[in-house]
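In response to reviewer comment 3 from the previous cycle, which asked for concrete evidence that the modeling workflow produces usable outputs, we include below a single protein chain processed end to end. The sequence was submitted unchanged, and the resulting structure tokens are shown without manual editing.
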Amino acid sequence: MSISPVRRLGLSGLIVHGVLVLLTLVSAGTLFAQWVWPADLLTFFRPHLFVASLAGLALALLARRRLAVLAAGAIVLFNLWPLAVSSVPAAPPAAAGAPTVRIMSANLLYSNPHKALFRASVDEVRPDILVVQEDVLGWPMALDRLDGFPYRASDLDSRLAAVDVLSRLPMTVTLIDPGPGGVKARRRRPVAVRAEIQVAPGAPPLVVYAIHPPSPRTLRYWHRRAATFAQIAQHVRAEPEGTRVVVAGDWNTPPWSPQFARFMDAAGLAATEALPWPPSTRVFLFRGRELPRWLGAPVDRLAVKGGVGTDGARIGPAFGSDHLPVYADVTVR
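The workflow returned the following structure tokens.
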């Protein structure tokens, strides 16, 4: 039995309206990301929402429903805005003639067996300072085999775990302790590592904060991530005026989250990534193979303040982790 044209149009309208209502509810949910945990999780999928809203617009155009097209267009613009307008300032350009330091950050993935691939990635990028996360299981020994890094934060303090800083340049390391009742107080692990690095004789030191806030996979960890950012921001703000600072690591936060903008503002930082829509650094693996990168989210980054210039962060070679390394050449003026 064939369906009449009227019924076909009615069914088409039902589908279009249902899709647009769903897109509206999900998109509007991001407005509450500052206060509601699931809403903040939606900010990881800002590009996905934009693509989905484009699909909704195409569906409305195919259905030839004027009001639906107008509504779909509004949803597209709503989801495009965070991807087109940055909420944080960009880092100043690199200063000509100033000492240049290359900083690389990489989440190793504790279960990643490809130690040789990581070494090849480091050899290709040739960083002066290497910040790593998930430095556990067999990774400490793999880092021991890297050439040309005589200074290492974990060699200076036995409490350090999971986050490490390796440097070709002399450095002094301080751990940012959570304090009584603070973040991770029961395990007494630091919330960040502060490395003061002597870039060149007579040049001002460069302070690198290596961070790895918790992933907000539960409500508890979402609150813990916010508390970690608040503590780190307090320390960065407390640096003497003009201190050259770089904050590097796996932030477990996309640039479209209110927590990202709040931290950047509280710490007085500027972004080195290609804002407002940087490429993904957190990728998904299936049976050891990397899925299309657009499915992931940009969570690994470097941010700067205090006269640190850069020509922008770049993504390094993949090495089997579910994160891609990021690096940038910075100048200290």
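The chain has two domains: 5-84, 100-332. We consider this sufficient to address the reviewer's concern, and the full set will be provided in the supplementary archive.
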